[in-house]
Amino acid sequence: MNSDENNQISRWDFTRVFLRSSLEQGSWNYERMHNLGFEYILVPVIERLYPNKADRIAAMSRHLAFFNTTPVMQSLITGVTMNMETEVAAGRLPADHVNQVKTALMGPLASFGDPLLWAVLRPMIAAIAIELSLSSSPVWGPIFFFVAWNGLRLTFRYISQSVGYKRGLNILEIVQSSLIKNVVKASSVFGMFLMGALIARFVSLNAVRGLSSVSIINHLNFSPVSILSAVIAICLMSISMWLLRHRVNAVWIMLGITAVCVMLAMIKVI
């Protein structure tokens, strides 16, 4: 099963793997999640390293196992897997180590990628895009979001694939260190802070209109109405998040909010 010296991963093979990386979820399935997409990504490497058909079949079969992690973080595992497949093809690493290492990386990288990407980076870019749409032309917001998100996503994919390929099994030391846990914790805290800022900036609710007619309110240095509106908005968002986490359909949540707002408007509360 030893590979020929000429059968090493080339720069073009590396680039082909990178170009395929965004298609990981194109064949997503409930049984083994991203396994077919991950195998598709590695096809250029497997074809390069294993000129023998039987070895190629064995390598392909190896990657039919269950695979699931944050899609953007997949590129780091891809790089590590490319390194391991090179070692397997050269006879320096047992083949069963490949899936063992992939399994060891999936969970920690998902716990790192989900809060960092979905709770911090993507909402931050979306907030800037919304602000651009509101303050200038509505066209600039979507353009900015598309360019910024995909630019950062693809840059991270390329760098992480390179690092994974160069470091190989040494990546396990970083993943199993306290660094990942600290980043996840910081990302979660910042994500909650960002959510509060977004609620205050973009969620508007004029609550309890009758308060503005009370004479004592006009002599205060702050507006209880605006504070109450902000509190109600935060409560409304928190209830919506709680319902989403309990798998209540988002459409039903929106319909419920609409119905409540209509009823409150009819009795002149908002």
Automatic annotation (TrEMBL):
Keywords: Membrane, Transmembrane, Transmembrane helix. The chain crosses the membrane at residues 179-202, 222-244, 251-269. The keyword Plastid does not apply. Signal peptide: none annotated. GO terms for biological process: phosphoenolpyruvate-dependent sugar phosphotransferase system. GO terms for cellular component: plasma membrane. PROSITE patterns: PTS_EIID (PS51108). This is PTS system, mannose-specific IID component. The lineage of its organism: Bacteria, Bacillati, Bacillota, Bacilli, Lactobacillales.
